Amino acid sequence: MTNQQLRKHLKLTWRDRLRISFIRKKLGSCGEGAYFDKNVEFMRYPQLVSVGSAAVVKEGVRICPCNQQASVAIGDRTTVGYHTFIFASESISIGNDCLIAPFVYIVDSDHGIERGIPINQQPNQTAPIVIEDDVWIATGAKILKGVRVHRGAIIAAGAVVNQDVPPYAIVGGMPAKTIGERK
Fold first, then answer.
1. What is the pLDDT of residues 2-36, one digit of tens each?
2. What's the angle, vertex CA 172, arms to CA 171 and CA 174, rounded to 5?
3. How many angstroms separate the most distant Cα atoms in the chain?
4. Which residues of 104-135 are buried (b: 16+ CB within 10 A; e: fewer)?
5. Before 175, cis peptide (omega within 30)?
6. Which residues contact 159 (CB under 8 A, 6 or more apart)?
7. CA distances from 60 to 38, 96, 116 (A)
8. Cβ-contact 145, 164 below 8 angstroms
C-alpha cells in the first residue's frame, strides 16, 4: 500500500516533469513514478544511485556516492524528507515502504582518530548501512556507519544510531537505545 496522503497532493506541472526527466537520465536506475522535488542534488557519481518505483525525494535532499566504488539504493515507495543528506563511501541501502523525515543524516563513514596524525590526514573508516523495509526514521535522526536497521523499526527524532536496530523496535536517544516495540 502506498502513502496516499502524500502522493495525492503531488500535482505535477510541466516543470516537475522536465526536472524528473532530467534527473532520471543521470541516475543508474530509476523506477516508474519516482518523484524528485526541486533543489534535489545527486552529487559526484549520480550513476551509482538507484531509486525505486513511486519513491519520493523531497526538496533539499543531497545524495552522494562519494567515490566510484560507492552506491546508494532507495527502495520502492520510500519517501526521503526535506533536507536529508545521504552520503556513501561504501554502500547505503534503503528498503521499500520507508519513511525518512526531514533533516535526517545517513553516512557510512567517519575519520580515523589515531593520536599523532592530524585528523585531516587520516583515512576514512567505512562500513555499509542497510535500512530494511517498512522503517520510519524521524526528524533529525543520524544513522552511522555499519548499522543495520531491521524491518519495521522506528528511529525516534534526534536519535543517533551507532548499532543495529532489532525488527519492530523503537529506538531513541544519543546513542540510540530500545525504548519500545511496535505492536
1. 455 566 667 788 998 999 999 999 999 999 999 99
2. 130
3. 56
4. bbbbbbbeeeeeeeeeeeeeeebebbbbbbbb
5. yes
6. 138, 141, 142, 171, 172, 173, 174, 176
7. 7, 21, 38
8. no
DSSP-assigned letter for residue 76? T
C-alpha cell at 119: 585528523
> What's the first-to-final CA gap in the chain, in angstroms?
19
| Class of 4-181 in CATH | mainly beta
Pair type for strands 109-111 and 124-126 = antiparallel
**Whole-number Å distance between alpha carbons of 3 and 58:** 14
Of 9, 83, 111, 150, the active-site residue reads 111
Q: What is the pTM of this model?
A: 0.93
How far is Cα 26 from Cα 122, in angstroms, rounded to an integer?
32
Residue 111 appears among annotated catalytic residues: yes
